[in-house]
Design brief:
Elements lengths: L1 E4 L1 H9 L3 H10 L4 E4 L1 H15 L7 H10 L2 E2 L16 H9 L4 E3 L3 H5 L7 E3 L1 H9 L2
Parallel strand pairs: 1-2, 1-4, 2-3, 4-5
Length: about 140
């Protein structure tokens, strides 16, 4: 299974506990594949560097390098726009579409509201865990 992970979910998983952290554990166990695009990778790096000043004990560069090296990177051949009411979020649908991925994990209202576009579903972190990993 391939998934695109919203930046806020990834950062929450790196810096905090809870469902986003559990999602990263499942990924680390090989339960699914993360898909990223250059635009998503850039946003991950930018936001992580900003947050890292609040959490200097976390080696964010190493974590992001692991994510980059162990995720599927997709080139964007078909641009997608005007999907979300916040156009900065369109990159997640663009990545999913260009990688034949049908799932985005996010708690962002703009992404959740666009769920179903091009048959790409958006699930909140807890809903993703419950749907795919509930015992």
């Amino acid at each position: 299974m391939k998934v695109v992970i919203d930046t806020n979910v990834l950062m929450s998983g790196i810096f905090f506990t809870g469902p986003p952290f559990e999602i990263l554990q499942k990924w680390h166990q090989g339960k699914f594949e993360i898909v990223i695009s250059p635009a998503i990778e850039e946003e991950y790096n930018r936001v992580a560097q900003r947050l890292n000043s609040n959490f200097p004990d976390i080696d964010i560069r190493s974590i992001l390098e692991i994510i980059k090296n162990h995720s599927k990177s997709v080139n964007i051949f078909k641009k997608i726009s005007n999907v979300c009411s916040d156009p900065h979020n369109d990159k997640f649908f663009e990545c999913a579409f260009n990688s034949d991925c049908t799932l985005i994990i996010s708690g962002d209202r703009h992404l959740l509201d666009a769920s179903g576009f091009m048959n790409i579903r958006v699930l909140k972190p807890r809903d993703f865990l419950d749907k795919y990993f509930k015992m």
